[in-house]
Design a protein that fits this description.
By secondary structure, this protein is an alpha+beta fold. It is built from six helices and seven strands, in the order ααααββββαβαββ. The chain has two domains: 74 residues, no CATH class; 122 residues, Chitinase A, domain 3. Helix content is 39%, strand content 18%. Strands 1, 2, 3, 4, 5, 6 and 7 form a seven-stranded antiparallel beta sheet that branches. Helix 1 crosses helix 2. The radius of gyration is 23 Å and the shape is elongated. It starts with 9 loop residues before the first helix and ends in a 7-residue tail after the last strand.
């Protein structure tokens, strides 16, 4: 499923998302119920609804507001929707989205701040000037990589609630990349490690994905990585 392009007009994207999200939020209506999906088609449609509902997460809709969204969709599909002028309500919808996104960001940043404060007091934790919280799990014996070196690592990335968002460990394949092409937290944190070592990097949003977030990671999120530095990859020497 390809998500709607950000280049689409806001009201068109919002309308498309709302049409799909109805599949996931009908449960909020009084007396409404949905049977657990059984067939592959039912599961596909259910997944579509859940997927698209995530795109409306920053609206932080209350149950009553969700009901209004559902009723609007039903009325539109039935052809008896109340006529509302787009020139008036497109800006209102945009303003609502921006206001709710700002509220969600502030809420996440407050939770992140509390998480970081607690993590910084943990045994063995080193709080760096950048905000990185570095904890060595196993000491390495090899060299430490420079910012332009390519490294081979295994890593396991989680959000502050423990949700796994990326993991080479789960994929079973180590990753390789230049340290100057990743988030600043990694450039600094992995640069503090030695080959063969394992450490935990707790990354505040300022040196991770900031206020914008990235691919399902909310803006303002703290990221925690358990990283094993397998080796510093030596550049290939091309024989003349």
């Amino acid at each position: 499923m390809t998500r709607p392009s950000l280049a689409q007009p806001f009201h068109r994207r919002a309308a498309l998302l709302a049409c799909f999200v109805v599949l996931a939020i009908t449960l909020v209506l009084p007396g409404a119920s949905i049977a657990e999906p059984e067939t592959e088609d039912e599961k596909t449609l259910y997944y579509l609804g859940v997927l698209m509902s995530k795109n409306l997460g920053t609206f932080m809709l209350t149950p009553a507001e969700q009901t209004q969204v559902v009723e609007g969709i039903r009325a539109g599909l039935a052809g008896d929707a109340i006529e509302l002028d787009a020139t008036t309500y497109d800006p209102k919808l945009r303003a609502l989205g921006e206001a709710r996104a700002a509220q969600a960001l502030e809420k996440e940043k407050a939770a992140a701040s509390a998480f970081l404060e607690k993590a910084g007091k943990a045994k063995g934790a080193k709080v760096m000037p950048s905000g990185l919280i570095y904890t060595e799990i196993e000491a390495g014996t090899g060299g430490s990589p420079g910012a332009t070196d390519t490294v081979k690592v295994h890593y396991h990335g989680t959000l502050r609630d423990g949700t796994v968002f990326d993991s080479s460990v789960q994929r079973g394949t180590p990753a390789e990349f230049p340290l100057n092409r990743v988030i600043a937290c990694w450039t600094e944190g992995v640069g503090m490690m030695k080959e063969g070592g394992k450490s935990t990097l707790i990354c505040p949003p300022e040196i991770a994905y900031g206020d914008r977030g990235n691919r399902g990671i909310k803006g303002g999120s703290v990221l925690t990585f358990e990283v094993e530095l397998i080796e510093i990859v030596q550049p290939e020497i091309i024989q003349p």
